[in-house]
Specification:
MFS_trans_sf; transmembrane helix; 83% helix; membrane
Length: 363
Protein backbone atom coordinates (compact mmCIF):
# COMPACT_ATOMS: atom_id res chain seq x y z
CA UNK A 1 0.00 0.00 0.00
CA UNK A 2 2.76 2.43 0.97
CA UNK A 3 4.73 1.62 -2.20
CA UNK A 4 1.72 2.44 -4.40
CA UNK A 5 0.30 5.47 -2.59
CA UNK A 6 3.01 7.43 -0.78
CA UNK A 7 5.31 8.28 -3.74
CA UNK A 8 2.45 10.07 -5.51
CA UNK A 9 1.98 12.07 -2.32
CA UNK A 10 5.43 13.55 -2.94
CA UNK A 11 4.92 14.40 -6.63
CA UNK A 12 1.20 15.22 -6.33
CA UNK A 13 1.67 18.97 -5.76
CA UNK A 14 3.82 19.16 -8.91
CA UNK A 15 1.09 17.30 -10.79
CA UNK A 16 -1.34 19.98 -9.67
CA UNK A 17 0.81 22.66 -11.29
CA UNK A 18 0.65 20.73 -14.56
CA UNK A 19 -3.13 20.26 -14.32
CA UNK A 20 -3.48 24.04 -14.06
CA UNK A 21 -1.27 24.53 -17.16
CA UNK A 22 -2.03 21.70 -19.56
CA UNK A 23 -5.31 21.14 -21.36
CA UNK A 24 -7.02 18.55 -19.19
CA UNK A 25 -8.43 16.78 -22.23
CA UNK A 26 -4.83 16.28 -23.36
CA UNK A 27 -4.02 14.92 -19.91
CA UNK A 28 -6.67 12.24 -20.45
CA UNK A 29 -5.35 11.49 -23.94
CA UNK A 30 -1.64 11.28 -23.22
CA UNK A 31 -2.12 9.93 -19.70
CA UNK A 32 -4.03 6.94 -21.03
CA UNK A 33 -1.53 6.44 -23.86
CA UNK A 34 1.25 6.44 -21.27
CA UNK A 35 -0.64 3.94 -19.12
CA UNK A 36 -1.12 1.69 -22.14
CA UNK A 37 2.61 1.81 -22.84
CA UNK A 38 3.59 1.14 -19.22
CA UNK A 39 1.09 -1.71 -18.90
CA UNK A 40 2.57 -3.29 -22.03
CA UNK A 41 6.06 -2.99 -20.54
CA UNK A 42 4.77 -4.52 -17.30
CA UNK A 43 3.41 -7.50 -19.25
CA UNK A 44 6.85 -8.03 -20.77
CA UNK A 45 8.41 -7.87 -17.30
CA UNK A 46 5.99 -10.53 -16.08
CA UNK A 47 6.89 -12.79 -18.99
CA UNK A 48 10.58 -12.21 -18.28
CA UNK A 49 10.18 -13.29 -14.64
CA UNK A 50 12.07 -10.27 -13.34
CA UNK A 51 12.68 -9.51 -9.63
CA UNK A 52 9.70 -8.39 -7.56
CA UNK A 53 11.07 -4.87 -7.08
CA UNK A 54 10.84 -4.24 -10.81
CA UNK A 55 7.18 -5.27 -10.81
CA UNK A 56 6.55 -2.97 -7.83
CA UNK A 57 8.22 -0.12 -9.73
CA UNK A 58 6.07 -0.78 -12.80
CA UNK A 59 2.90 -0.88 -10.67
CA UNK A 60 3.98 2.37 -9.01
CA UNK A 61 4.34 4.11 -12.38
CA UNK A 62 0.91 2.98 -13.59
CA UNK A 63 -0.72 3.96 -10.28
CA UNK A 64 0.98 7.37 -10.28
CA UNK A 65 -0.42 8.22 -13.72
CA UNK A 66 -3.81 6.88 -12.61
CA UNK A 67 -3.93 9.28 -9.64
CA UNK A 68 -2.88 12.14 -11.95
CA UNK A 69 -5.72 11.37 -14.38
CA UNK A 70 -8.28 11.09 -11.57
CA UNK A 71 -7.22 14.45 -10.13
CA UNK A 72 -7.68 15.88 -13.62
CA UNK A 73 -11.18 14.39 -13.78
CA UNK A 74 -12.21 16.08 -10.53
CA UNK A 75 -10.73 19.40 -11.65
CA UNK A 76 -12.45 19.21 -15.06
CA UNK A 77 -15.92 18.13 -13.94
CA UNK A 78 -17.25 21.63 -13.12
CA UNK A 79 -16.41 22.68 -16.70
CA UNK A 80 -19.02 20.31 -18.13
CA UNK A 81 -21.61 20.07 -15.32
CA UNK A 82 -23.82 22.82 -13.92
CA UNK A 83 -23.23 23.70 -10.27
CA UNK A 84 -26.73 22.48 -9.39
CA UNK A 85 -25.90 19.02 -10.78
CA UNK A 86 -22.43 18.59 -9.27
CA UNK A 87 -23.69 16.38 -6.45
CA UNK A 88 -25.32 14.00 -8.93
CA UNK A 89 -22.23 14.01 -11.15
CA UNK A 90 -19.95 13.29 -8.19
CA UNK A 91 -22.25 10.42 -7.22
CA UNK A 92 -22.23 8.93 -10.71
CA UNK A 93 -18.48 9.24 -11.25
CA UNK A 94 -17.23 6.88 -8.50
CA UNK A 95 -20.20 4.57 -9.08
CA UNK A 96 -19.29 4.25 -12.75
CA UNK A 97 -15.68 3.71 -11.74
CA UNK A 98 -16.63 0.96 -9.31
CA UNK A 99 -18.81 -0.75 -11.91
CA UNK A 100 -15.98 -0.54 -14.43
CA UNK A 101 -13.50 -1.96 -11.90
CA UNK A 102 -15.89 -4.81 -11.11
CA UNK A 103 -16.36 -5.56 -14.80
CA UNK A 104 -12.59 -5.40 -15.26
CA UNK A 105 -12.08 -7.89 -12.46
CA UNK A 106 -14.57 -10.24 -14.09
CA UNK A 107 -12.84 -9.84 -17.45
CA UNK A 108 -9.48 -10.62 -15.83
CA UNK A 109 -10.96 -13.78 -14.31
CA UNK A 110 -12.23 -14.91 -17.72
CA UNK A 111 -8.88 -14.16 -19.38
CA UNK A 112 -7.04 -16.21 -16.78
CA UNK A 113 -9.44 -19.11 -17.30
CA UNK A 114 -9.02 -19.04 -21.07
CA UNK A 115 -5.25 -18.50 -21.11
CA UNK A 116 -4.18 -20.72 -18.21
CA UNK A 117 -3.53 -18.20 -15.43
CA UNK A 118 -1.61 -15.78 -17.63
CA UNK A 119 -1.03 -12.59 -15.64
CA UNK A 120 0.73 -11.04 -18.62
CA UNK A 121 -2.37 -11.51 -20.78
CA UNK A 122 -4.52 -9.78 -18.16
CA UNK A 123 -2.15 -6.81 -18.09
CA UNK A 124 -2.16 -6.63 -21.90
CA UNK A 125 -5.97 -6.51 -21.87
CA UNK A 126 -5.65 -3.59 -19.44
CA UNK A 127 -3.26 -1.88 -21.86
CA UNK A 128 -5.83 -2.27 -24.64
CA UNK A 129 -8.52 -0.71 -22.44
CA UNK A 130 -6.24 2.23 -21.64
CA UNK A 131 -5.78 2.70 -25.38
CA UNK A 132 -9.57 2.71 -25.84
CA UNK A 133 -9.86 5.38 -23.13
CA UNK A 134 -7.32 7.53 -24.97
CA UNK A 135 -9.29 7.21 -28.22
CA UNK A 136 -12.53 8.07 -26.40
CA UNK A 137 -10.99 11.31 -25.08
CA UNK A 138 -10.53 12.49 -28.69
CA UNK A 139 -14.30 12.98 -28.92
CA UNK A 140 -13.97 16.03 -26.65
CA UNK A 141 -12.77 19.43 -27.84
CA UNK A 142 -9.28 20.33 -26.64
CA UNK A 143 -10.44 23.42 -24.74
CA UNK A 144 -13.57 21.85 -23.25
CA UNK A 145 -12.13 20.82 -19.88
CA UNK A 146 -9.95 23.89 -19.28
CA UNK A 147 -7.94 25.55 -17.97
CA UNK A 148 -8.50 28.83 -19.79
CA UNK A 149 -5.70 29.43 -22.29
CA UNK A 150 -6.25 33.18 -22.33
CA UNK A 151 -4.53 33.54 -18.98
CA UNK A 152 -0.83 34.42 -19.02
CA UNK A 153 1.16 31.53 -17.54
CA UNK A 154 4.84 31.38 -16.58
CA UNK A 155 7.25 28.95 -18.18
CA UNK A 156 6.96 25.36 -16.94
CA UNK A 157 10.37 25.42 -15.22
CA UNK A 158 9.39 28.57 -13.37
CA UNK A 159 6.03 27.06 -12.44
CA UNK A 160 7.62 23.87 -11.10
CA UNK A 161 10.25 25.86 -9.21
CA UNK A 162 7.46 27.88 -7.66
CA UNK A 163 5.42 24.85 -6.58
CA UNK A 164 5.84 25.69 -2.90
CA UNK A 165 4.62 29.22 -3.55
CA UNK A 166 1.78 27.77 -5.63
CA UNK A 167 0.74 25.50 -2.78
CA UNK A 168 0.87 28.42 -0.38
CA UNK A 169 -1.31 30.37 -2.81
CA UNK A 170 -3.70 27.43 -2.92
CA UNK A 171 -3.89 27.34 0.87
CA UNK A 172 -4.56 31.09 0.93
CA UNK A 173 -7.20 30.56 -1.75
CA UNK A 174 -8.90 27.97 0.48
CA UNK A 175 -8.56 30.19 3.55
CA UNK A 176 -10.51 33.04 1.94
CA UNK A 177 -13.81 33.53 3.77
CA UNK A 178 -16.04 32.34 0.93
CA UNK A 179 -13.91 29.21 0.42
CA UNK A 180 -13.28 28.29 4.05
CA UNK A 181 -16.05 25.72 3.83
CA UNK A 182 -13.97 23.81 1.27
CA UNK A 183 -10.99 23.76 3.67
CA UNK A 184 -13.18 22.41 6.47
CA UNK A 185 -14.64 19.77 4.17
CA UNK A 186 -11.16 18.64 3.03
CA UNK A 187 -10.01 18.33 6.63
CA UNK A 188 -13.12 16.39 7.61
CA UNK A 189 -12.79 14.04 4.64
CA UNK A 190 -9.13 13.35 5.38
CA UNK A 191 -9.96 12.40 8.96
CA UNK A 192 -12.84 10.19 7.84
CA UNK A 193 -10.55 8.50 5.32
CA UNK A 194 -8.09 7.87 8.17
CA UNK A 195 -10.86 6.24 10.19
CA UNK A 196 -11.98 4.08 7.28
CA UNK A 197 -8.42 2.91 6.64
CA UNK A 198 -7.84 2.00 10.28
CA UNK A 199 -11.07 0.01 10.45
CA UNK A 200 -10.20 -1.74 7.19
CA UNK A 201 -6.90 -2.97 8.66
CA UNK A 202 -8.68 -4.14 11.80
CA UNK A 203 -11.23 -5.97 9.67
CA UNK A 204 -8.44 -7.69 7.74
CA UNK A 205 -6.80 -8.86 10.99
CA UNK A 206 -10.10 -10.08 12.43
CA UNK A 207 -11.02 -11.99 9.29
CA UNK A 208 -7.71 -13.79 9.22
CA UNK A 209 -6.80 -14.38 12.87
CA UNK A 210 -9.94 -14.13 14.99
CA UNK A 211 -13.14 -14.96 13.10
CA UNK A 212 -11.86 -17.82 10.92
CA UNK A 213 -9.50 -20.76 11.33
CA UNK A 214 -7.92 -20.98 7.85
CA UNK A 215 -6.47 -18.57 5.32
CA UNK A 216 -9.08 -19.46 2.70
CA UNK A 217 -11.94 -18.83 5.13
CA UNK A 218 -10.36 -15.54 6.16
CA UNK A 219 -10.01 -14.38 2.57
CA UNK A 220 -13.60 -15.39 1.83
CA UNK A 221 -14.92 -13.42 4.82
CA UNK A 222 -12.74 -10.42 3.95
CA UNK A 223 -14.00 -10.52 0.36
CA UNK A 224 -17.59 -10.60 1.62
CA UNK A 225 -16.94 -7.66 3.95
CA UNK A 226 -15.36 -5.62 1.15
CA UNK A 227 -18.32 -6.45 -1.08
CA UNK A 228 -20.73 -5.27 1.63
CA UNK A 229 -18.69 -2.08 2.05
CA UNK A 230 -18.87 -1.62 -1.73
CA UNK A 231 -22.64 -1.94 -1.48
CA UNK A 232 -22.47 0.94 1.00
CA UNK A 233 -20.61 2.97 -1.63
CA UNK A 234 -23.43 2.31 -4.11
CA UNK A 235 -26.03 3.24 -1.50
CA UNK A 236 -24.18 6.52 -0.92
CA UNK A 237 -24.26 7.26 -4.65
CA UNK A 238 -28.05 6.85 -4.62
CA UNK A 239 -28.76 8.56 -1.30
CA UNK A 240 -26.32 11.49 -1.37
CA UNK A 241 -27.89 13.55 -4.21
CA UNK A 242 -31.23 13.46 -2.37
CA UNK A 243 -29.79 14.08 1.11
CA UNK A 244 -27.29 16.76 0.08
CA UNK A 245 -29.97 18.47 -1.99
CA UNK A 246 -32.17 18.85 1.09
CA UNK A 247 -29.59 19.34 3.84
CA UNK A 248 -26.75 20.86 1.85
CA UNK A 249 -23.40 19.08 1.31
CA UNK A 250 -21.90 20.40 4.55
CA UNK A 251 -24.74 19.17 6.75
CA UNK A 252 -24.69 15.83 4.93
CA UNK A 253 -21.05 15.44 6.00
CA UNK A 254 -22.20 16.11 9.58
CA UNK A 255 -24.85 13.40 9.30
CA UNK A 256 -22.37 10.90 7.83
CA UNK A 257 -19.74 11.53 10.51
CA UNK A 258 -22.30 11.44 13.33
CA UNK A 259 -23.82 8.19 12.05
CA UNK A 260 -20.36 6.63 11.87
CA UNK A 261 -19.52 7.84 15.39
CA UNK A 262 -22.62 6.16 16.81
CA UNK A 263 -22.78 2.98 14.72
CA UNK A 264 -19.06 2.14 14.36
CA UNK A 265 -18.60 1.14 18.03
CA UNK A 266 -22.04 -0.50 18.13
CA UNK A 267 -21.11 -2.81 15.26
CA UNK A 268 -17.37 -3.01 15.92
CA UNK A 269 -17.07 -3.75 19.64
CA UNK A 270 -18.80 -7.17 19.56
CA UNK A 271 -15.99 -8.35 17.23
CA UNK A 272 -18.40 -10.77 15.55
CA UNK A 273 -18.96 -11.48 11.86
CA UNK A 274 -22.57 -10.28 11.56
CA UNK A 275 -22.15 -6.89 13.25
CA UNK A 276 -18.85 -6.30 11.46
CA UNK A 277 -20.51 -6.83 8.08
CA UNK A 278 -23.21 -4.34 9.05
CA UNK A 279 -20.49 -1.93 10.17
CA UNK A 280 -18.68 -2.36 6.84
CA UNK A 281 -21.84 -1.29 5.02
CA UNK A 282 -22.30 1.75 7.28
CA UNK A 283 -18.70 2.89 6.91
CA UNK A 284 -18.85 2.41 3.15
CA UNK A 285 -22.00 4.53 2.96
CA UNK A 286 -20.82 7.29 5.31
CA UNK A 287 -17.30 7.54 3.87
CA UNK A 288 -18.43 7.69 0.26
CA UNK A 289 -21.35 9.97 1.09
CA UNK A 290 -18.97 12.43 2.77
CA UNK A 291 -16.52 12.20 -0.14
CA UNK A 292 -19.20 13.01 -2.72
CA UNK A 293 -20.26 16.01 -0.64
CA UNK A 294 -16.63 17.13 -0.22
CA UNK A 295 -15.95 16.88 -3.96
CA UNK A 296 -19.01 19.02 -4.62
CA UNK A 297 -18.07 21.67 -2.06
CA UNK A 298 -14.50 21.96 -3.35
CA UNK A 299 -15.54 22.07 -7.01
CA UNK A 300 -18.10 24.79 -6.35
CA UNK A 301 -15.85 26.91 -4.12
CA UNK A 302 -12.47 26.74 -5.85
CA UNK A 303 -11.68 28.85 -8.92
CA UNK A 304 -10.77 26.96 -12.09
CA UNK A 305 -7.19 28.31 -12.00
CA UNK A 306 -6.61 26.53 -8.68
CA UNK A 307 -8.60 23.32 -9.14
CA UNK A 308 -5.69 21.25 -10.43
CA UNK A 309 -3.52 22.10 -7.43
CA UNK A 310 -6.33 21.76 -4.91
CA UNK A 311 -7.49 18.37 -6.17
CA UNK A 312 -3.92 17.09 -6.34
CA UNK A 313 -3.50 18.24 -2.75
CA UNK A 314 -6.82 16.56 -1.93
CA UNK A 315 -5.52 13.32 -3.45
CA UNK A 316 -2.31 13.60 -1.43
CA UNK A 317 -4.24 14.09 1.81
CA UNK A 318 -6.49 11.17 0.91
CA UNK A 319 -3.55 8.81 0.29
CA UNK A 320 -1.48 9.91 3.30
CA UNK A 321 -4.49 9.56 5.60
CA UNK A 322 -5.15 6.03 4.36
CA UNK A 323 -1.54 4.85 4.66
CA UNK A 324 -1.13 6.62 8.00
CA UNK A 325 -4.23 4.86 9.28
CA UNK A 326 -2.77 1.50 8.28
CA UNK A 327 0.42 2.31 10.18
CA UNK A 328 -1.39 3.47 13.32
CA UNK A 329 -3.71 0.47 13.26
CA UNK A 330 -0.78 -1.90 12.85
CA UNK A 331 0.82 -0.40 15.98
CA UNK A 332 -2.37 -0.52 18.06
CA UNK A 333 -3.79 -3.88 17.00
CA UNK A 334 -2.99 -7.09 18.90
CA UNK A 335 -2.28 -10.27 16.89
CA UNK A 336 -5.96 -11.28 16.82
CA UNK A 337 -7.16 -7.84 15.67
CA UNK A 338 -9.44 -7.20 18.68
CA UNK A 339 -8.70 -3.67 19.90
CA UNK A 340 -11.25 -1.78 21.97
CA UNK A 341 -8.99 1.32 22.20
CA UNK A 342 -8.78 1.54 18.39
CA UNK A 343 -12.55 1.26 17.94
CA UNK A 344 -13.17 3.91 20.62
CA UNK A 345 -10.49 6.22 19.17
CA UNK A 346 -12.04 6.00 15.71
CA UNK A 347 -15.50 6.75 17.15
CA UNK A 348 -14.10 9.81 18.95
CA UNK A 349 -12.53 11.10 15.71
CA UNK A 350 -15.81 10.66 13.85
CA UNK A 351 -17.60 12.50 16.66
CA UNK A 352 -15.08 15.34 16.58
CA UNK A 353 -15.53 15.69 12.80
CA UNK A 354 -19.32 15.81 13.16
CA UNK A 355 -19.13 18.38 15.97
CA UNK A 356 -16.64 20.64 14.18
CA UNK A 357 -18.55 20.60 10.89
CA UNK A 358 -21.85 21.22 12.69
CA UNK A 359 -20.40 24.27 14.46
CA UNK A 360 -19.02 25.60 11.18
CA UNK A 361 -22.39 25.13 9.46
CA UNK A 362 -24.14 27.03 12.26
CA UNK A 363 -21.70 29.92 11.88
Amino acid sequence: MAVLLLPYSVVGPFAGVLLDRWRRRQVFLYGNLLRALMASVTALLILGKVPDWLLFAAALCVTGVNRFVLAGLSAALPRVVDTERLVVANSLSPTAGTLAATAGGGLAFVVRLVLADSDAAVVLVGALLYLCAAVASLRMAKELLGPDRALVRPRLATALHGTARGLAAGVRHLAAPRRRKAAWALTAMSLMRFCYGAMLVMLLMLCRYSLTSTTDEGLALLGLALGVSGAGFFAAAVLTPWAAGRLGPGRWIVVCAAAAALLEPAFGLPFASGPLLAGAFVLGLTTQGAKIATDTIVQAAVDDDFRGRIFSLYDVLFNVAFVGAAGVAALMLPPDGRSVPLVVTIAVIYGAVATAMARFERQ
